[in-house]
Amino acid sequence: MRFAIAPSLCRHVLCRHCWPRLHFGRLLSSSASVPWHCPQSVTATTSTNNFSACRYSSQAAAVAPENYEFQAEINSLLGIVAKSLYSDQEVFIRELISNASDALEKRRCSELQGDAAEATATLELRIEVDEKGKKLTFVDTGIGMSRDELVNLLGTIAKSGSKAFRADEKNAAAAEAIIGQFGVGFYSAFVVSEKVSVTTRKLGEEIGHIWSWNGGTHFTVEEKPDADIGTKVELHLKAGEAEKFAVPQKVVDVINKYSYFVTAPIFVNGERINVTRALWTMAPSETTPEMHETFFKQLAKTHHPHLADDRPQYTIQYQTDSPINIRALFYVPTKRVSHLEFAADSQRDIAISLYNQRVLIKPNAKELVPHYLRFLIGVVDSEDVPLNLSREMLQTDLILEKIRKTLTERCVRFFLSQLSKDRVKYNDFYMGYSMFFKEGVVTEQSNTTKEEIAQLLLFESSSSRPGTLTTLSEYVERMQSDQKNIYYIYAPSRQLAETSPYFELFKDKYEVLFLSDPADELVFLSMPQFHMKSLQSLEKWTKEEGLSIDSDKESSAELMRDSSKKEFLGWLRDSLGTVRVSDIKPSGRQSEHPFMITISADMGAARHMLRITEIKEMEHLVMLRPVLHVNLSHPVVAGLMRLKRQNAELATEIAIQVYENALCTAGLLKDTSKMVGRLNKIFAELLQLNAEKSQILTP
Q1: Does residue 472 contact residue 530 with C-beta atoms inside 8 Å?
Q2: What InterPro entries does the record tag this protein with (predicted)?
């Protein structure tokens, strides 16, 4: 099917002879190739069977209503536009409000340029809801339409007057406020209407016109001498489901959802609806904390009702016109997010709405920021966002990627500035939102991005007092000149970390970061380096360097010259079994720990595997192949050596318990349920032995 947008073959673009034939006859029918010549010299007539002469002729006079007939192909196209393009009936209200907003903005621009010949009117849109008559009326005091524009814009699908307005260089100052793009929004009213009429008079013209469609294959245009400047659209709603829009509150709900922030005042049956300004379009200097708190509550009520009484602890506002037009406003709630809420939030829609010139396009626009920033509540407005015709779906486009990248960088930069500006406030924020940043480091693919997010993380350090937090950047600044790695250790608390055999072996060398959250360890595993420094756990250092120190080798060799100790290690290997240990090595280092575990794999990765997988008892030990390092100079080991000669069974139970203590210290004990029972058994036997010994010694 051939189709042309607003064509003209004669010098009178909207000649009443040319237009109906061009638009609904010759160019959309099988006879499209038949030449057409405009009969401009034909004598004017009001016959209902003939077209009158071109109205640009000096002989043209007042005429009767003109009746235009849609071709079958046009009816089909209208059906597609009206019924298939818009997924929800309610969007016709949004589209008509957008059209009215554009008309009001055009009038404002015209008056500023001094083109208006009449007194300035109050720029507003009034919607009248007639419940009894099942009718909706949209009345704006905008620039209105001429007869030519009526026929051209309402009679030509995909002819956008707003797009043409923006393209005109003299309207550059007002272009940002113009919403329309595609010229199809008006036809969304056909979804719910059986009759549509448009009464309008353009600013500067004396005579108005009425465009009418009664649901058939015709529409008419006639003069309306007493029409007011502006446009009135009357919709007679279809019976059935469409009648729900003949209720004022329903109309208000749709306005609140889509069009609350359009510039023009909107009234429904005389009551002002949109009283809150679109703060994201205002300069930061024009807004106040009270305005932001009110706006935050309004957004929270829509997206997260449980935060409706909260207030923002951070406000992020960003505006730019180059290279992409962006108006963004984000809030961080004051209420902390628990781990349970964090897990639930991962399945929840993001609370960021996308607008295009203050008209809602998508309420949960997950495309605009990465998933780890889903704690933000706010809006993004961009006239450059690529939309489809219905303005309901985003088109995949590089512009979206650029917006996402820009907003992400601005948010990370903002939090870095707050980290430097007010450390106390940032620490409080971090306690409630650190999980999101950690998720970002783990889930982002780029190492550069990982490092950028990691700058926001905080940890305790061996060089600072308990409770004092430091950043990775600050750690790097304090590194010694001969230090190549960033060292860390994971433990549920700082106290446990400081009593760890791995920390004991390392503590006098370099500064160590204490990781107390399992997610911290996953962060370090997923990030190979930070500022060109490798991240190394103390367990890995112990396995690769700590146990190979000369003094430890010499002590071990000297101890193994004692045959009784060599025999003890053989007994210990048999008692524990090859599943629990793949090897046993002696150590003569002075330490508070009798046993220490190392494994061939990264211990942090092993701990993470144990957390997320369902592995039966002992199976994980087969995979990990632990190496047991025995401190032969420790009193517990010396006691075991004596006890195995007196009570081998009890000695075996104690050896297994001390071995599991070492597993627990390393974070590799999968099942702790048997430990309590074993300990009770050991205590009972020891107490019994002590009682028997007391009886022997008693005279």
Answers
A1: yes
A2: HATPase_C_sf, HSP90_C, Hsp90_fam, Hsp90_N, Ribosomal_Su5_D2-typ_SF
User: In three state form, how does the secondary structure of 344-413 look?
Assistant: HHCCCCCEEEEEECCEEEECCCCCCCCHHHCCCEEEEECCCCCECCCCCCECCCHHHHHHHHHHHHHHHH
Question: Is residue 419 located within the same domain as residue 502?
Answer: no
**Is 573 annotated for ligand binding?**
no
- Residue 603 confidence class, pLDDT cut points 50, 70, 90: confident
Position 682, amino acid: I
Annotated binding residue 432: no
Task: Check the annotation: does 560 bind a ligand.
Answer: no
Query: What is the maximum alpha-carbon separation in the chain?
Result: 145
pLDDT at 18: 47
Q: Confirm whether 75 is domain-assigned.
A: no
**Strand, coil or helix: 211:** strand
CATH of the domain at 585: 1.20.120.790
Q: Is 506 annotated as a binding residue?
A: no
Closest listed residue to residue 55, CA positions, set 146, 117, 116 = 146
Burial of 475 (0-12, 13-18, 19+ CB in 10 A): buried
Structure tokens at 123: 């720029």
Which of 48-52, 128-132, 261-265 reaches the highest mean pLDDT? 128-132
Judge whether 422 is annotated as a binding position.
Answer: no
Mean pLDDT confidence for 514-535: 93
Q: What per-residue confidence (pLDDT) applies to 50?
A: 36
Number of domains in the chain: 5
Q: Is 449 annotated as a binding residue?
A: no
Question: Is the distance from CB of 630 to CB of 659 less than 8 angstroms?
Answer: no
In a domain, 334, yes or no: yes
Q: Would you list the DSSP string of 312-354?
A: EEEEEEEEE-SSS-EEEEEEEESSPPPHHHHHHHTTSPPEEEE
**Which of 527, 545, 563 is at the close of a domain?**
545
pLDDT at 592 over 90: no
What is the Cα–Cα distance from 473 to 457, expressed in whole angstroms?
A: 10
Is 436 annotated to bind ligand? no
* 287 has binding-site annotation: no
